[in-house]
Specification:
about 210 residues, alpha/beta
């Protein structure tokens, strides 16, 4: 946000969030006409469930993924945290020490979730970035060549501050070669560039409606 002397404010933070009247009108309409509990069996509940199912199918078609793999959360921060927590809990279910690799430029929600688990005994290692704001892919590949026992690798698709696109498909390919789960935060690229969850191929891919 910039405010000059005797000037109207100009909003410049559209990557964080933006006005979307069409989305708001759709949400208000659903709250008024589809207010039933979608878990209920009565007609209002079934009607609300159909609306959710249709939204899921629409999202799946837009994201190029099967609808059964879509999970709705309150927002991207929750989704990012969920991805990290899920990977950690899976490692613990196998009686393994959780080990997390995240890039130095991940969103705070990923960083905080990873640091929380580090405080609880997990190992956390940071993937460095080059002077151009791109993760050091060679550093990552060299690390995996000697140490591939990781619970999760998390690299965002585009940084929310710089807009730099990260080589996520190469990261996922390198991780798959060692059977390492991956998480890609696509909040900044959804709706702004062609995007296919199937093509990215990550274990977890997160988005936000805004």
């Amino acid at each position: 946000m910039y405010l000059g002397v005797n000037a109207m404010p100009v909003y410049l933070d559209y990557n964080a969030s933006a006005p979307f009247p069409k989305g708001l009108s759709g949400e208000l309409e659903s709250l008024i006409s589809q207010y039933g509990n979608p878990a209920s069996l009565h007609s209002s509940g079934r009607s609300a469930r159909r609306l959710i199912n249709q939204a899921t199918e629409n999202a799946a078609a837009f994201l190029d993924i099967d609808a059964e793999f879509i999970y709705w959360t309150s927002g991207a921060s929750e989704a990012n945290s969920w991805a990290v927590h899920s990977a950690v809990e899976y490692a613990r279910s196998k009686n393994l020490k959780p080990r997390l690799l995240i890039s130095a430029i991940e969103h705070e929600s990923v960083q905080l979730a990873a640091k929380f688990h580090e405080a609880c005994g997990a190992e956390l290692k940071i993937i460095p970035v080059t002077k151009n704001g791109v993760i050091d892919l060679e550093w990552l590949k060299n690390l995996l060549a000697t140490d591939a026992n990781w619970s999760l690798i998390s690299v965002m698709h585009a940084n929310n501050e710089t807009g730099v696109i990260q080589p996520v498909e190469q990261v996922v390919a390198a991780a798959k070669a060692h059977l390492i789960p991956t998480h890609v935060d696509c909040v900044q690229t959804l709706g702004k560039m062609p995007l296919s969850v199937r093509k990215i191929g990550a274990t977890y891919t997160t988005f936000s409606a805004h």
